[in-house]
Each structure stands twice: as C-alpha cells, then as structure tokens.
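Hi L.,

You mentioned the student needs an example of a multi-chain input paired with its predicted structure. This one should do, with 627 residues in total across all chains.
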Amino acid sequence: MVASEYRVTYEDSVEALKNELREIKETYDPNIVVIENERAPEGNLCLLKFTVKVPSFYLETEDDTNPKPASEMKFYIQVPSGFPKVKPLVFYPPNHRLASVNVFRNGHQCIDEWKDSSSLDGTVRKTLLDIIHDPVVTRYSSMANSSLEKWQKQKTEEGVLPTFETGRLFRKKNIGTPELPTRKPASSSGKNIPPLPTRR
Amino acid sequence: MSETFNSDKLPDYFRDFVGKKVAIVGTGAVGSYLTESSIKMEIGQLYLFDMDSFAADNTAKHSCLLRYPEDVGKNKARALADRAKAIMVEEGNVVGIDANITFFGPMAFSEMDVVVLALDNYAAKIYYNQIWLQIPEKKRPILIFGGTLLENAQSNCLDGKEACLRCLLDESWLGESEKRTSCSGPQFRVVDGVQEVVKTTGQASRISADLMAEQIRGFFLGIDNVRNRRILYSPYPNLSFSIVHPMRRADCPDCRQYHPPKEILYFDGNVCDTTVGELFSKVSEQLGSDEFEVNIPVVEFAKVGYGGLITSGVCHSCGKSMKHIYKHEFRTYYKDIVCDECKKAGKEVKFDAEYPKGEVIRAISPRTVSQELLQKKLFEVGWNVGSYISVTEKPADAMDVFDERVKHYTFTCKGDIELLEYLRELR
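Structure written out for the whole complex:
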C-alpha cells in the first residue's frame, strides 16, 4: 500500500493503537513485562501500566541522588487524544522513579524527539532498556538528570550495569527448523540433458 | 459598473468573476501585487490576511496600492483592503484581517473558491496545507502558492486530488521551517555551507503574483491543465517559462495524516462569541448525554504537536504560583506566564531560571470543568475560527478509548464562516 493512499482517520488511529498494543504485548516475555490497561485520565486515549520484573535502581524523591536497588520497576504510558501528533507521556510513580540520567527529576522518562517515524513500540523498547540500564540508550550528551552521571558511569565500569540481559526481556518465539527441500534424483544416463551449442 | 472599469475594453468573462471568493494569505510583496491583479480581474469577494505592518522599506518591493508614507505602520492586509475598495467593482467587497493564519481552521476557508498562500515561511505554508486537507473534498478550494528564489518565480495550483503542498517540498528544507525569509528582514540561504544574503527584486515578486493570477484566471475559465500544475519562470540570460505536473510523494506525512472527518455536526454561533459552558449545552443537546469530553484542539506547527491547555503554573519572573491560566500551549510564550504584579511592575521573564512545568489538561468535561473555564470563549481557550471541535462520548465507567461504547464526534461552529465578513483583527 502506498503510504500516501493510507489516510489515517480518528478511528484508524484508535485501531492502529490497538494493533500496536497487541504487538507490544506479544513482543515481551509476560513473565518479565506485565502490561495492564488502567483508567485513562480525561483527554487521553489510554493509560498503560508496565510492571517490569527485573533488578534495577530507583530514587524516592525529586531531590534524591542516592540510587537504591529494586527487584522490579513500574512505569506508565499515557497516550493523549492528539496521538500520534502529540507524543505519549512516560512516567514513574513519584516515590519509585528510575535512577537514570534519562529520567527527569519529576519522574518523567525522556523519550527523545517525537517525529513522524516515532512509535509507541520504540518508546516502550527504549524505556525497558533504560530500566535495565542498557548503555545503548544512555544519553550522556543530553542528560535529563545529570546528578546521576557519575554514579551511572561508575556502575557501568564496575559491570553492575546493565542489570539484566537484554534478550531475556523478549518473548521466545518457537519458530522450529524449517525442512530443507528434497533434491530431485539426477538422470543416470544423461539422456535428458540438452547438448551445448557448438561454436560456428 | 464602476467608472474604474470599462466593459468595452475588458473581457466579458470578467463579469463572471464578480461572484468568486478568493482568500490571499500574506499581503507582502507577492500578495500585494496579486491583490491588485485580482481586483483588476473583477474578482468580487476578496479576503486578505496578514499580521505584519507596512514598513517604509517595503515600498520598493510592494504594489503601489500601499502608499508611502501614508500607510507606513498600518497592518498590511487592512491598509491594502482600504486602498483596494476605492477601485474594485461596485458589487465587490474586500476584507482585510489583521491575524495570524494559525488562528484559522479548516471550515473558515470552506466557502472560498481559491486560497492563495503568499507566505514567507514553510511552517505557515504547511500549517495551511494541513487544515486545507481537512476541508471536506466537495468544499475544498483550489490552493495556489508560490514565491521567488533569487529572480526566479513560480506558482503552483493544486486541487487536492493529487499532490498536496507538502508533496512539493523537500523535507530537508523544513529544518527551520518557522524562519521567515522575506518581508520581515533580509533573506538568508546556506549555499555550499556558506550563509549568504539573498536579494530579490519586486519584479520577481510581481511575476510570481502574475503567474498566480494566471492560474486563478485559468481555473475560473475551466481551462484544461491548470489544476495540479507548477509554472516556473527563470529570467535572463535564458528567459524561460516551463510547466510541470508535480506528483504526489509516496511518503508525504500530510497526505497520510490529514483528511476530512467522516461526519461533521454543526451548531449555531462562532468561536469568538460562544463560551465553553454554551458549548457543553449544545453538545449535550445533540448527544442526549452529559457523559462526554471535549478534547483540547491539537495544533501542529513546525513539526511539533501542541494539544494542551495550561491551567496552572508559576510566574516566569518571580516564581509565584499562578492558577486559572487557561491558555493553549500553542499560543503561549513565557512572557504570557507572568503574574499581574510583575506585569504592572514591568518585570521581565527570567529565561535562565528553571521553573517547574505547569499543569496541562488535554480535555474538559461537564464533570470536571471549573467555573472560570465555563465562562471563557472558545477562541480564548484555543479553538480557532473554523476549527473542528473533537468530542469523545465516554460513559463514566469506560476505562479507555478501546471500550466499544466510546464514540467520537466532530463538531464545528456554523457561524465561523460568516465571521470572516466582519472580522478585522484577531489577537
């Protein structure tokens, strides 16, 4: 389908969002990443609660600069009614924010510039990787909370971070090994092989 | 027939143009020349939009309809309209509106035959393109836009069935799309990594305006191959005209995301006179229910979506808490979030201070709306003239939009179209 022929109505947006959520739920291991729908506040299409059962580090307040270990993290994604033109909001509970340079002191996750190509799936992925402190998403060049820079770099050097193996976040797909095609038996006499053309 | 027009010397078909409605958005150099050509073609209903004032040094590039020194300091659209009235056809009318194009929504232009964009920044052009694509196809006017590049001139005429305006732009040009490039100051371009001043004559602007006038004339006459065409002019040493048929771009984000609603519900009144409380009553009457949310309008400008109403925050001068702000994110600058005391004392915004973000809401409902907000006019809250009002009917126990009982409606104020006849200023 040519992109320009696909015109997104409000109903299409909602349907696309539903499909994207279903795909997100099918991507991650449900034993590690639990996704629940919560009551959406006014002006929002939906509110999703993620419980991520991985070790991580958290802060208790806006001014807290001493990360504490956690056995799981919760975060929320609030999808506004202007989505996808208006970006979603990703945030942590006030007393249990992720200790990361990518999280603002007010507990909002930095989700980078929201472009036409941005997606909810990309946002979820980045947040999950940040929760396990995967350095591939850590933005020291543009920190939301610079007070954690020294701590995060030191823990990464010590090997404490990342706190979890990235691959284990994802649901295992049982593809199986596909069967190889069977080879046809070659003709023993070679009678059916056409002669090569002769040079004139 | 007025004494300024002699029917023995002018084409008979000009008389058919008297009933046509043309909006010219941007009355700088190109727009002022086009206004002059339009009234001389006997186009009877002209609507001029501009938020700028005529400066002395605009004289060398603008149409002489605007006079130096009498019109210096006046709003361009209003001054041009006043001058044009003196010479246009007797049956005609020209309205000059001192306003930013971003104060208007799709339905404001739904009764125009042609809308011409003579704007100097891509962000405003794309804003209009997005609202144009949301006008129901049967009501969508022809869109003409163009301009100059050095001494080259062009004009594009689109009917909405093929390419849109954004299809014709290179996304790499949109990096600083809100940067204005002509009337408001010197024009800069980066050529081979070096920034240089670009100087253009009024002649190039006039030629661009004339190309636009030709496309308007061709469209009104029903000439084949006027629609969905670009005319390009290049001056000496190799004077040339060419016409191309631009194609829709497969990855155009505007073609993908912007389109008319499936159904539009109308109610009487306009956004400048209707309060939030009155809106709730009208919606409640149409839906037969009070269980709904009215979504704060979303405005996309320079690739950023603004969809919130700022309800409270802190003064960006003294840091004092401020409540009942009720300003739309898109229309709010830091200087607007200053308390009355600081305003009276003439204190300035402290840009280097870090202030906590204010509270922003994305919808309002009869259940939760404050008394202060009920009294506000829709335009004040953020709905533009001719904009759509998005309403979500949502039972109190519905979790989110995936509940099948949740329905979406699009309303608009019928009176917004008539508002253009007597609107002179919108701030």
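You could point out the following to them. The interface with chain A takes residues 167, 248-253, 255-259, 261-262, 293, 295-296, 298, 300, 303, 305-308, 356-357, 361-365, 368, 390, 392, 399-402, 408 of chain B (CB under 8 Å). The CA atoms of residues 153 and 286 of chain B lie 50 Å apart.

Best wishes,
N.
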